Amino acid sequence: MTQNKFGVKLGVDMSHFRNNIVFGSGRDQRICPGQHLANTSLALNVMNLLWAFEFTPDETTQKKGTKIDIWNYQKGGFYMPAPFPCSIKPCSAAKVSIIEEQFSSTSSLFENFESGDLEIKDLDDHEQMWM
Ligand code: HEM
Predict the structure, then answer these.
(1) Which helix (DSSP H) or strand (DSSP E) does residue 87 occupy?
(2) What's the 22 CA to ligand 1 centre distance in angstroms?
């Protein structure tokens, strides 16, 4: 079990770890002033996704019994996992109802932030289903 903010095992030397490096080095007084908003929003989004959906290996991966390599990251400046097959399903019908209700009850608020002259009739069938 981990008991520290970096999620590493106990006993690992964390003296050089920084969890805000992505927001700039802080040299010359420049560091991202939006970092707390960004981090909090990200945490909320991840928590909501984990609350609502079940993430599992896709059917083919399950049938083959292969394991997804969680250390397979893309190379380059943006450090992120390489694409992998995955199944994402709502945890329950009750959670689907909550999401749909919340979506329709907040749509009128968020419509104010829509850009351009796009109207609901301009959306495709799948998008309209949510309006
Ligand atoms: C994951 C999301 C974000 C990342 C990775 C990020 C990253 C960065 C980085 C690397 C810089 C440059 C720092 C430097 O010059 O050394 C920066 C600057 C800045 N960021 Fe962010 N940022 C994020 C979200 C946000 C948000 C949500 C806001 C505002 C609400 C914001 C506002 C700013 C501003 C105003 C600057 C310019 C600061 C200056 O020049 O003094 N950022 N950000």
Answers:
(1) strand 87-90
(2) 9
38 lines ligand 1 (CB under 6 A): yes
- In eight-state DSSP terms, residue 83 is P
Domain boundaries, the chain: 1-67+84-91, 92-131
Short-list 48, 57, 61, 54, CA closest to 103: 48
Nearest CA to ligand 1 atom 6: 23
Which of 12-16, 31-35, 85-89, 100-104 has the least mean pLDDT? 12-16
55's enclosing H/E stretch is: strand 53-56
- The pTM score is 0.71
- Asked if pLDDT for residue 106 goes beyond 70, the answer is yes
Query: Which run of H or of E encompasses 116?
Result: none
pLDDT, one tens digit per residue, over 25-44 is 777 778 899 999 999 999 99
